[in-house]
Amino acid sequence: MPTDPDTGYDPSLGRKFIFVTGGVMSGLGKGITAASTGRLLSNAGFDVTAVKIDPYLNVDAGTMNPYEHGEVYVLKDGGEVDLDLGNYERFLGTDMTSDHNVTTGKTYQHVIQKERAGDYLGKTVQIIPHITDDIKRRIREAAEGSDVCLVEVGGTVGDIEGMPYLEALRQFAHEEEDEDILFTHVTLVPYAQSGEQKTKPTQHSVKELRSIGLQPDVLVGRCEDELDPEVKEKIALFCDVPTEAVFSNPDVEDVYHVPLVVEDEGLDEYVMDRLELSDEALPKAERSTRWRELVTREREKELDIALVGKYGLEDAYMSIHESLKHAGIDTRTEVNALWVDADEMNAEHEERLEQADGIVVPGGFGSRGTEGKIEAVRYAREHDVPFLGLCLGFQMAVVEHARNVVGLTDAHSTEIDEETPHPVIDLLPEQYETEEMGGTMRLGAHTTSIDSGTLANEVYGAESCTERHRHRYEVNPEYIDQLESDGLVFSGRADNRMEILERDDHPFFFGTQYHPEFRSRPDRASPPFVAFVEAALEEREAEQTDEVTA
Ligand code: GLN
Question: Cα–Cα 20 to 30 A to 300, which of 200, 429, 443, 520?
Answer without folding.
Answer: 520
